[in-house]
């Protein structure tokens, strides 16, 4: 990386109220040259910035991580491919798809046909493309037209060997889109949303507040596909951590996955003022119905949809009691502790139970895994909602019914 990258990093630091005071009196030319040399050598240590405390050093390193994140697909390639696709589709069927939607649609179609995504990512893609199908009233005869227009430009965005098997791949992708269109209902295919707030809440975890340009019609417990502009063909599921608000903002809890593409961008690179896209909200089995008591068991950022259920009850208290068990490895990993404490103090019907699986110095908090403490808190008649990492969900699926929780009262996230 070059001096230009360091310059972009310095602009972010100057705009940060916590970091900018530490630039006073610093020889910026010397700091820039020092970091540029370290970047050229393949690593960066912020030791050329004397007097920077450790907390601020981590904050500055977070900005640098964002600047250095490599582009997975140059935005220009998507723009060019969308322009070429538009010319070809307009020749075959004028007005079929609006110009403003084409970059996202072309990137999503190419990603779906090219493969290379996991099941959850593919289902997020299909939720968006299914809405595109319904929104623009596509019919079976449009499939071959779109496929023929896409084939010549997909080579820019997909593996080279795709062309040799294009017809079969496109036929399969179009069939998936048609089936998805029958499941997603009506409404916009995606909502542009501005990032209005960002909090690096724990190591590798960010809380983002976004404001869609049009109100997003979601319910607590639903999941929403999210896309960042730098990776327009990749959509990932995130659950809003709040009930609908008067100002329309949505809070997203994101953990950076080491092998991921979208989540590291959301955690390390996205800043207030940036634009994201949100797809159509989808039920994943966590929407609370009825008026019975609730036991909510969260692991990691699985807290997000369960916190939204707590806010839903708070908005219309009806006498039900709610117990929220929040699992984390250590106290430092309990990233939303301030909000949880505020909720616990504000609502006498709510009991928040932190559970720390790898921290022996947490008294008077509980030590142990979230599922074990959830079983200890369980009372007959409660509806039980569990959300967390895949390993936790696999264990819950077998362990909780074996411990006596009726399967019709056990709710785990699922995306179909």
From TrEMBL:
Keyword terms: 2Fe-2S, Iron, Iron-sulfur, Metal-binding
Q: Which domain of life is it from?
A: Bacteria
In this chain the FAD-binding FR-type domain maps to 188-297
Quick check: keyword S-adenosyl-L-methionine in the entry?
no
Cofactor(s) the protein needs:
FAD
Which Pfam family, any one, appears in the UniProt record? NAD_binding_1
Q: Which InterPro entries match?
A: Cbr1-like_FAD-bd_dom, FAD-bd_FR_type, FNR_nucleotide-bd, MRET, OxRdtase_FAD/NAD-bd, Riboflavin_synthase-like_b-brl
Q: What is this protein called?
A: FAD-binding FR-type domain-containing protein
């Amino acid at each position: 990386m070059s001096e230009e990258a360091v310059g972009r990093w310095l602009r972010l630091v100057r705009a940060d109220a916590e970091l900018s005071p530490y630039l006073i009196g610093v020889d910026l030319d010397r700091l820039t040259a020092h970091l540029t040399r370290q970047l050229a050598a393949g690593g960066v240590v912020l030791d050329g910035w004397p007097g920077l405390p450790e907390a601020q050093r981590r904050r500055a390193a977070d900005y640098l991580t964002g600047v250095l994140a490599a582009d997975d697909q140059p935005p220009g390639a998507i723009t060019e491919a969308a322009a070429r696709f538009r010319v070809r589709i307009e020749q075959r069927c004028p007005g079929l798809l609006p110009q403003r939607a084409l970059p996202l649609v072309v990137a999503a179609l190419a990603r779906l046909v090219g493969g290379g995504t996991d099941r959850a990512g593919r289902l997020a893609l299909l939720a968006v493309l299914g809405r595109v199908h319904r929104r623009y009233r596509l019919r079976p005869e449009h499939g071959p037209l779109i496929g023929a227009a896409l084939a010549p430009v997909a080579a820019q965005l997909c593996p080279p060997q795709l062309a040799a098997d294009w017809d079969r791949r496109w036929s399969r992708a179009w069939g998936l889109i048609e089936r998805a269109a029958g499941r997603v209902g009506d409404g916009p295919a995606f909502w542009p949303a501005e990032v209005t707030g960002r909090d690096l809440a724990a190591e590798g975890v960010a809380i983002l507040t976004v404001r869609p340009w049009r109100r997003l019609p979601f319910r607590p417990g639903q999941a929403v596909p999210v896309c960042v502009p730098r990776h327009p063909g990749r959509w990932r599921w995130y659950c809003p951590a709040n009930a609908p608000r008067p100002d329309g903002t949505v809070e997203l809890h994101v953990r950076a996955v080491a092998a991921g593409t979208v989540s590291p961008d959301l955690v390390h690179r996205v800043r207030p003022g940036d634009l994201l896209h949100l797809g159509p909200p989808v039920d994943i089995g966590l929407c609370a119905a009825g008026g019975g008591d609730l036991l909510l068991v969260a692991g990691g950022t699985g807290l997000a949809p369960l916190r939204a259920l707590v806010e839903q009850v708070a908005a219309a208290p009806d006498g039900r009691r709610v117990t929220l068990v929040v699992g984390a490895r250590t106290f430092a990993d309990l990233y939303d502790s301030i909000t949880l404490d505020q909720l616990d103090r504000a609502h006498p019907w709510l009991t928040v139970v932190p559970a720390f699986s790898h921290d022996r110095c947490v008294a008077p908090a509980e030590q142990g895994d979230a599922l074990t403490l959830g079983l200890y808190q369980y009372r007959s008649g409660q509806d039980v909602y569990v959300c967390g990492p895949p390993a936790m969900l696999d264990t819950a699926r077998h362990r909780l019914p074996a411990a006596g929780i009726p399967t019709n009262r056990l709710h785990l996230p699922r995306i179909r």
